[in-house]
Amino acid sequence: AGRLLTIGFWMLSLILIATYTAQLTSFLTLKASKSTITGIDDIKNNKVPHSRIGIVIGTSAEEYFLKTISQGSTNYYHLSTTQDIFIKLLDNSIDVAVASGASAIYAINNLYCKLTLVGEPFYATSIAIDLPRVWQYKQSLDVQILQLTESGELERISAKYFNTLTCGSSSSDESSSKKMEVQSLAGLFLTYACVSVIAILLHLWLKLKRHL
Q1: Which of 80, 86, 88, 115 could bridge to 93 as Cys pair (CB 3.0-4.6 Å)?
Q2: pTM over 0.90
Q3: Distance CA 117, CA 39 (A)
Q4: Strand partners, 142
Q5: Domain final residue pick, 69, 96, 127
């Protein structure tokens, strides 16, 4: 019985050390792979070379970048369309991209799960509909938009297309990972508890056998 307990302790120690080593390696690898960019301030502080920053030409993001960051210099990576943002990030042509528009946010949150958004929004844009200066349906359009707003339909559409996260979040992944770790360790200790009970029962049986 004593040898059985010793073997159990020895096996438990080996498994715990192996588990701890694996988790530590995973943590260090994950930490090293995380983006070092936390927001627009890192770009302003030249943490990333401008040649590795993608900007879609002709957008409000380009205008913002020229005025507040590069001081008119156009030595950044020129992109033709929003789709180029995702392509160039995935093939490592650029390290970051300053994106404008809800379509880019939706695509990253729901289509390109290998990409992520960092930082808080740093400039506001307005959504507008281009119309002829004199248009006979203008008043009718205003009424329809007002009705959609009052009925909550616009809010529902916004929630459906811009507040969804098909790709999920890193926090949920981390919580599920921790849950798996706890479950695996719980199973390990349960196994050792069973071994201990068997060892105790064996000890009692041998002791009883000697008395008989």
Answers
A1: 88
A2: no
A3: 9
A4: none
A5: 127
Q: Give the CA angle between residues 84, 122, 161 to the nearest 5°.
A: 60
146 domain residue, yes or no: no
Q: Which pair of tokens denotes residue 8?
A: 């159990």
> Cα(39)–Cα(199) distance, rounded to whole angstroms?
58
Q: Over 83-121, what HEC string results?
A: HHHHHHHHCCCCCEEECCCHHHHHHHHHCCCCCCCCCCC
- Residue 191 sits in which domain range? 2-32+172-211
Of 127, 150, 180, the position where a domain reaches its end is 127
Dihedral sign, Cα of residue 138, residue 142, residue 147, residue 153: positive
> Is 145 a domain residue?
no
